[in-house]
Amino acid sequence: MAKYKIAWMPGDGIGQEVMEAARIVLDKLQLDAEYLPADIGWEFWRTEGEALPQRTIDLLNEVDCGLFGAITSKPKQEAENELIPELQGTGLTYRSPIVRLRQKLQLYYNLRPCKAYQGNPLNYREDIDLVVFRENAEGLYSGVEFHPVEDDLREMMKKYAPALGNFDDVAGDDMAMTVRVVTMRGADRIIRRAFEYAQKHGYPTVTLVEKPNVLRETSGMMVRVAREIQKEFPSIELWETNIDAQMMWMLKNPENYGVMVTGNLFGDILSDLSAQLVGGLGFASSGNIGDELAVFEPTHGSAPKYAGKYIVNPHAMLLTTKMMLDWLGETEKAIALENSIAGVIKEGKVKTYDMGGKSSTLDVANAVAERL
Ligand code: IPM
Ligand code: MN
Asked: What residues pack around ion ligand 2 (CB closer than 5 A)?
């Protein structure tokens, strides 16, 4: 029996081809694993009305971890239009399977490192080495949304937010609402993981990126929790910044930041910006991590227009694979993989179009594998 069971989830779009790239390096590393294909993605939405079938959740509950490529997400109406005729008009609503998977399996933090590898022509600066801890199971992604807004909710708004005035002249159908949910438990565990990571990897600071001057309750709770947790980590300084200003500072002096921790939507935004500083989404890896299970996925989406062309940059997927190896405790393999990726980038011979090259997705994977 293999040492590890890994759920294998290419998803759709370029997910398929970047996962092929991952497999090339995993096979070269001879990881003692069994890869179990799992259904997830657009095809299953279209034909079953469920992009994340229960059989996939069941499988995930049995494996050591999952590796995931990419999934197409579309807004509500567009998604409904693509259902097979039998399923149209049956009241199915599309919600991103990856977001649901994070919540259902309580993969409560999303680890998104961004490092400038030497020789990458796309680096914004050479000295960037940061990590975004994105809260992954609540916040504005909680799925607490309303449309139309019914009378009981309006009464609540009048009661709790009198400054808004009343919306008596706005029809319920003309109003929509998304609620940002933060719990002490959620705040505590994400911030704690960020401090632990900073300690383990020698980062001197943790920056909490929120907006407590306006989001007084949700961001306020994050700030209170962070200040308490910092006391347990006296050698690490806590910096508190606002998300808007942080965006500016990320362009001005990103080298000042190491570990950053923030809520779900802010983290989504901050991690894309961070990725661009080190070459774009082609270099951005991520892991959805819980206490016992983790699902690793590149930060990029399914890029349907490139699907099947084998031209996208697999480094994000390969760095994601490296993160998975780290999480499994396969430290030597993880280090070897990262060194090979760094070597290929530095040499600058085998590179995809985004880096100014002509190599294919699998050329890059093979070049990385060759160095292993
Ligand atoms: C990401 C993606 C997802 C998100 C989408 C595809 C739902 O942008 O992983 O960053 O918003 O979390
Ligand atoms: Mn995103």
From this structure: 268
Model pLDDT for residues 38-51, shown as the tens digit of each residue: 999 999 999 999 99
Q: Give the mutation target among 40, 52, 73, 74 for probing the ligand 1 site: most ligand atoms within 8 A of CB.
A: 73
Kindly give the distance from the C-alpha atom of residue 268 to the centroid of ligand 1, in angstroms, as a whole number: 7
pLDDT in tens, 326-342: 999 999 999 999 999 99
The residue segments making up the domain with residue 80 are 1-108+292-372
In a domain, 310, yes or no: yes
Give the count of domains, the chain.
Answer: 1
Candidates 71, 55, 74; CA nearest to 63 is: 55
CB 109 within 8 A of CB 192: no
Is residue 1, in this structure, part of any structural domain at all?
yes
pTM beyond 0.85, yes or no: yes
Q: Are 44 and 14 in contact (CB under 8 A)?
A: no
CATH number, domain containing residue 310: 3.40.718.10
